[in-house]
Amino acid sequence: EHSPKEPTCVQSTVPSNCSKILEAGHLQSFSSFRRHFYHVNHQRIKSSLQDQPNIDVTDIRLAPINKTVQNDFMKRLNENTSYFPHLVYHGTRLKNIESILRYGFLIPNRSHPFNSEAPIIVSQNGRAFGTGIYSSHSAVYSLSYVNATNTLLVCAAMPKRDKVGKIERSHGNILVLSHVSQIIPLFLIDFKYLDRSHTNYPCFNEDKQSKIDKNNEIQKKPVIISRKYLRKVLNYMNDEVRKNNRYQVRSFELFN
Description:
CATH architecture: Alpha-Beta Complex
Distance between the termini: 98 Å
Order of helices and strands: HHEHEHEHEEEEHH
Shape: elongated
Strand order of the largest sheet: 1-7-4-2
CATH class: Alpha Beta
Helix content: 25-40%
Oligomer: single chain
Number of helices: 7
CATH topology: Phosphoenolpyruvate Carboxykinase, domain 3
Number of strands: 7
Radius of gyration: 27 Å
Strand content: 15-25%
């Protein structure tokens, strides 16, 4: 491994030039890394859906990823500087995007290794290549998994390699990650369909989604009754029971 203070030559599918080098400045902060990653991959990101004539990319924006998730990714990146992270895409449901941005990607049926507040999710699309986090080098392929939204996640991934540097768990254009800190969303691609054969859904909106989540949380909260009020209710119920019992006793005496 190289020291973070030294320029680190990396292997990548991007053209061979100085952009492939991760220097100390790129590793100092998440924003610095993301800026450099976009510099290296911006042409590929911008043209990722250009082969789809019925799709128009309306925006490419920063993913508002949680600071803790950033730190976990940067820690792994600083420990594995021999290879430049891969550009991959991930399509999912609208409701899952907010969770990914808050907790990072999660592995189905497993608790988060660092964050006890993260939910345990179940697999929604099968596990053809085993349990893990599924991503793709193809934005078009990932598009088939987008559901109820017009937003696609653009990510950086650090796949595990064997002793000779061969990538593990790579299956065609599908890349499976075995640990939550191996992949992170960097950007969001918003798009719209130009033909009527596809339905256009809302793009992910952080503020709007947060309001929806807060409203759902409020609805889920149990109703809290004060002890004083509860005592009054119970006393009233007991009084009614006693009155009813006295009535039944009197009725019994009257008819006997």
